[in-house]
Amino acid sequence: MQDFTSRRIVWRSQPLEITITRNSPNVSEKNTNKPKEKNRRDYAGILPKKGWPRRNYHFLRHRLLPQAFQKRNGSSKAPIPHPPEAGKIRVTWIGHAAFLVQFPDHSVIIDPNWAQWHGIVKRQRQPGLDLNLMPLVDLVLVTHAHFDHLHKKSLKVLESHEGIVVPKGSGSLVKRLGFHSVHEMSVWDTLQFGDLTVTHTPSHHWGARYLHDTHRDYGGYMVHSGVCKVFHCGDSSYFEGFKEIGKHHTPDVALMPIGAYDAPSGRDVHMNPEEAVQAFIEMEAGILIPMHYGTFPLGNEPFHEPAERLIAEATRLGVADRVLILEEGVGVEVECLAETKT
Q: What is the pTM of this model?
């Protein structure tokens, strides 16, 4: 087995003190504005909608079969080894929903996925970063148990100081993947590792990896270090929860899904580009970086449509200058807003 310690970049050597706050979005228990626990209204369910045979036939014929014979585009690069300057965040899109997020004093990897195939679904673009060159980070975060977000083979290679964070009910899936600590979180729980803070935010989706394990939770993460804050939405359709998130957090960067909205099942499980812009505005975020498009064909929408619709809607609403469409493997630095909400 390859010795990874010789090529890992370590930014600190001392373990961080870990604290957890259960179901509290940075407000006291007496605060009447505290968000309610996520309930079944935010659960998308697993049953397909009427017309699913026709939609699945279209998906098979016009998406899955053609993509199986297409050559993958893109190339893998080495991550930038040094941290960004004070007051900035560096975000590198690996592909799909996977990101390396580097703060001046910390770094995290979210939803790492280097898979070339998911069943019969072929990856269309190479991962932006070389898995064998990934740095030793503070935390690995997984938003939910779906195969395109919790990829075990990728997780087995990655290493982190403080282990892995998963939603409640998914700890059993990662406990044998080599992480010394597994942290399960419920919605609105907050984990603090020194001055690195992670809050598990709600979404409208579902968390089952198969069909019988609907007990698994799902959501996104607000990751906060110093004056910098990044929001990773996870998978979600549009719902009122984005307004609730925006009441308590002002992310400098919002990583928002914009693809797979024309689901073969017909279920309301992924937001479209217009809804991603709406959610971004409601959270009063600084920069929108799209994800969950262009890597794996998971919906019936045309391959290039999500990004085109995103730019059109952002232009219509006057926020096009706050949208960054990243190329896989290219790190982009964003200046932090230094704003907080309580």
A: 0.88
Q: What is the pLDDT of residue 136?
A: 96
Query: Rounded to whole angstroms, how far apart are CA atoms 233 and 257?
Result: 7
Nearest residue to 166 via CA among 193, 144, 198: 144
> Distance between CA atoms of 215 and 224, rounded to whole angstroms?
28
> What's the Cα-to-Cα distance from 12 to each of 62, 137, 160, rounded to whole Å?
49, 10, 12
At 169, list the tokens.
């009910």
State how far the Cα of 18 lies from the Cα of 254, in Å rounded to an integer: 25
80 pLDDT more than 60: yes
- With 0-12 CB in 10 A as exposed, 13-18 as middle and 19+ as buried, what is 4? middle
Q: Average pLDDT in the 181-195 region?
A: 95
Structure tokens at 232: 């990773």
- Residues 242-280 have pLDDT tens digits of 999 999 999 999 999 999 998 888 777 899 999 999 999
The sign of the torsion formed by the CA atoms of 167, 173, 174, 175 equals positive
Q: Which long-range contacts (CB under 8 A, 24 or more apart) does 63-69 make?
A: 63/297, 63/299, 63/300, 64/120, 64/121, 64/297, 67/121, 67/122, 67/124, 67/297, 68/120, 68/122
Percentage of the chain lying above the pLDDT 70 cut: 87
Three-state DSSP string of 250-297: CCCEEEEECCCCCCCCCCCCCCCHHHHHHHHHHCCCCEEEEECCCCCC
Instruction: Identify the residue whose tokens are 């990829």.
Output: 151
